[in-house]
């Protein structure tokens, strides 16, 4: 089998050229989104991924997302969640199945979303809401795979400023690997190397992976790797060793 990868953003936290790195994978009518940066619906609109056959509209929008994974709580991966949650709840109706590590779920509501989503005016009174108003929260296992629709998702802690998870997403036949934000980590690359397609970050600073370290990886790994989360000064760069992912790109995995 194969599934589809829709790359909704490729930028780093400071990019003015791209949306923050995030993507969706879909098999049949199940759409799994990974991370939710600023201007999330605008990114979907501009990229105009084909809608589901069963959905209304001209492009894939947030009301067609079956589930979402959050890798960590930095703004360039989570800032769009407030508006997505409010849209799903108050405009379209319903809650969003949201999967994340124990560390992310522990802080998501009280330290990120409660101030903006916890109290709403309904026209006559203020109503207090909790996370269950917006989300069906589900913890991703740290030491086993977790079922998310037709996918099995494995996680691995990365080397970053705050708890962050890399992912392996499989439909049982083919597997997509995602480094997420991380300092260069040989153990992580060993964990990803057998995936059929790998998305690996690069950016500036000690908690990210320098591009030259990816260029030194074995050719058989680089040949199935796309670079994401790259800063604006790498836009347009072409090198023999690696391929940069393009925003709006649709790829068949498998």
TrEMBL record:
One of its GO terms (molecular function) is metal ion binding. InterPro entries: Metallo-B-lactamas, RibonucZ/Hydroxyglut_hydro. Residues 19-229 form the Metallo-beta-lactamase domain. Gene3D superfamilies: Ribonuclease Z/Hydroxyacylglutathione hydrolase-like. It comes from the Bacteria. Pfam families: Anti-Pycsar_Apyc1. This is Ribonuclease Z.
């Amino acid at each position: 089998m194969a599934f589809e990868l829709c790359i909704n953003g490729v930028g780093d936290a400071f990019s003015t050229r791209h949306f923050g790195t995030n993507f969706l994978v879909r098999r049949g009518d199940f759409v799994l989104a990974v991370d939710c940066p600023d201007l999330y619906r605008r990114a979907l609109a501009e990229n105009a991924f084909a809608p589901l056959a069963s959905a209304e509209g001209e492009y894939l929008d947030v009301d067609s997302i079956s589930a979402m994974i959050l890798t960590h709580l930095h703004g360039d991966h989570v800032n769009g969640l407030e508006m997505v949650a409010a849209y799903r709840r108050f405009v379209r109706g319903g809650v969003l199945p949201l999967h994340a590590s124990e560390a992310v779920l522990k802080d998501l509501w009280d330290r990120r979303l409660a101030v903006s989503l916890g109290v709403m005016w309904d026209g006559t009174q203020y109503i207090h809401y909790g996370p269950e108003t917006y989300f069906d929260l589900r913890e991703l296992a740290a030491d086993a795979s977790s079922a998310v629709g037709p996918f099995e998702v494995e996680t691995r802690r990365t080397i970053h400023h705050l708890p962050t998870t890399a992912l392996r997403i499989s439909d049982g036949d083919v597997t997509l690997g995602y480094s997420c934000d991380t300092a260069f980590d040989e153990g992580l690359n060993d964990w990803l190397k057998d995936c059929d397609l790998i998305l690996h970050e690069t950016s500036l600073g000690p908690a990210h992976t320098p591009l030259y370290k990816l260029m030194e990886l074995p050719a058989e790994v680089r040949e199935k790797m796309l670079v994401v989360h790259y800063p604006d000064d790498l836009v347009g760069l072409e090198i023999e060793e690696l391929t940069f992912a393009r925003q709006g790109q649709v790829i068949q995995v498998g």
